[in-house]
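Slide 14.
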Amino acid sequence: MDKDMQQYLEKAEVLIEALPYIQRFNRKIIVVKYGGSAMIDEELQKKVIKDVTLLKLTGFKPIIVHGGGKEISRWLGKVGLESQFMNGLRVTDADTMEVAEMVLNKINKDLVRMVEELGVRAIGISGKDGALLKVNKKYSNGQDIGFVGDIKEVNGQILLDLLEKDFLPIVCPIGVDDDYNTYNINADDAAYAIAKAMNAEKLAFLSDIDGVYRDYNDKSSLVTRMTIEEAKELIGTGNIQGGMLPKLQNCIGAIENGVSRVHILDGRIPHCLLLEIFTKKGIGTAIVKEEDQD
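Slide 15: predicted structure.
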């Protein structure tokens, strides 16, 4: 067998390996939280969008929820405003909120354009549209951090209508309170709330981390798969710190509310989403309800 033929056969094997996953998740909702450095690098951005578009074309019903923290910080610097954080959350005064909303809406429409260029219909939607994301004011350990929202209600019917019309929804994590004030929302929290409200089959967090480590200082301790009980035990050890703690808590909450599997992936790895979903080995950390779950 010549070398070219061998390469073609290997490609065919990859497609065959993906078949049971395509069959299993056909017409199922998957929420993809997209953030971190993968949003800054244009080539990585294109790969992520291609991955999600491929999911759409192979029968999934993907919803993208995007962040934009790094870009917000960059634009705040441009206009002479300082980025401040408290317990991992951006302190958001009125001026910061104005910049954040402009930046996030620009990112949103850029992502829509990239999906449309690949021949898939996409609609970018803010959490303000149709009161998609209703919020209460969020406090950080009792301290006021400004216009930061804690989601209390998701109007999932809007997203269901878009999916039914064969659109790929791209959600900007901005919300409103009962008085229609505008609030910034942590994108992880928005993705979790949307996945829960939509009864999503999968929730995937694409960020700047390899996955979950039992000990962050020991790179050989990466956990490729864990149950929610194991995740709770790991949180109890105190080894989970910083931004991973709320992310892991969101993962547990999602599974306890009906999401079958949550993935934490390094968005800096090209095509990490496809590798995780369509191959046996996967990449990053998968969190499931029970040990014997497929």
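Speaker note: DSSP finds nine helices and 16 strands in the chain.
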